[in-house]
Every structure is written in structure tokens, then in C-alpha cells.
UniProtKB/TrEMBL annotation:
Family statement: Belongs to the protease inhibitor I16 (SSI) family.
A Pfam family of this chain: SSI
Protein name from the UniProt record: Subtilase-type protease inhibitor
Primary localisation category: secreted
Organism listed in the record: Streptomyces pyxinae
Subcellular location per the Swiss-Prot or TrEMBL entry: Secreted
Length: 148
């Protein structure tokens, strides 16, 4: 009987430790509700790094600028100059650079390509993308996410 009691005590202790650990993790990184027109679900906060490079691909040169962006928490943040607007733009683009839409800004036809990269986690999904633009003006025409 002592063995059975010890086993139940160990199981209870393990369950309690797991519950306390999970509660502590949620306190440090609370789940936030993310509503979209198609469905509702819970996601951990998103943490991203954006870079801009001169050239037609990210591998063509070293990053010229880099910023961080956190979304999905109570207050968007990071080193991005417009974190709230950037998070809204990324939400509308379903977390993808390819989902960004051109605002219709008029730009010159200068060919000085720049590439933006997006790496990190977006609503529980790993993201690693790059998108090239003919020049800085066109890059900026795709909204606040790419304006840094």
C-alpha cells in the first residue's frame, strides 16, 4: 500500500508542478485573441525582425537597416517607428509580405532595387520571407510595415 500511495503522491505533485509551470508561462506570455473575418483563434504574441537591403535579393548585400516588431500583445512594440500601424498592415496581409497591397503612390521609374525581409513568428506560425521593390519610393507605397 505504501507504494501505491507514493505513486499517487508523485502523480499529484507532477500534475501540480505542470499546472503551476503552465500558469507562469501564460502570465509571462499571455495568449491574445486575434479576430479575422474568416475565423477566431488564440495566438501567442508575434515577434518579428524586418530588414532592408540594397539589391534585388537579401543575399545580394548586408542589411542596411533592421527593426523589431511585436504584435498581438496589448500594446504593439519594438523598434519599428510605427508599430501599431505596422501590426495592422501585417494583420491585413495575413502575416505575409506578399499580402501587402500597393497604396497607389506615384513613384519615379528609378531602378535602385531594395529588398525587405521578414523573419520570426506570426500568430504561432514561423515566417521567413523577402520581397524586392524597384526603389525606396515603391517600397514605401506598400504601407507602414515597409516604412522604416
Amino acid at each position: 500500500m505504501k507504494f501505491r500511495t507514493a505513486g499517487i503522491g508523485a502523480l499529484t505533485l507532477a500534475t501540480t508542478v505542470a499546472a503551476v509551470t503552465a500558469a507562469a508561462a501564460l502570465e509571462q506570455h499571455p495568449l491574445t485573441r486575434s479576430d479575422s473575418s474568416s475565423h477566431s483563434s488564440f495566438h501567442a504574441p508575434s515577434a518579428l525582425v524586418l530588414t532592408v537591403n540594397n539589391g534585388a535579393s537579401a543575399s545580394a548585400s548586408a542589411p542596411q537597416r533592421a527593426v523589431t516588431l511585436t504584435c498581438g500583445s496589448y500594446t504593439p512594440g519594438g523598434t519599428h517607428p510605427q508599430p501599431a500601424a505596422a501590426c495592422d498592415a501585417l494583420q491585413q496581409a495575413d502575416g505575409r509580405l506578399s499580402g501587402l497591397r500597393d497604396s497607389g503612390r506615384s513613384c519615379t521609374l528609378d531602378l535602385r532595387p531594395v529588398t525587405v525581409t521578414l523573419q520570426g513568428a506570426w500568430q504561432g506560425r514561423r515566417v521567413n520571407e523577402e520581397r524586392s521593390f524597384p526603389n525606396d519610393c515603391v517600397k514605401g507605397a506598400f504601407g507602414p510595415l515597409t516604412e522604416f
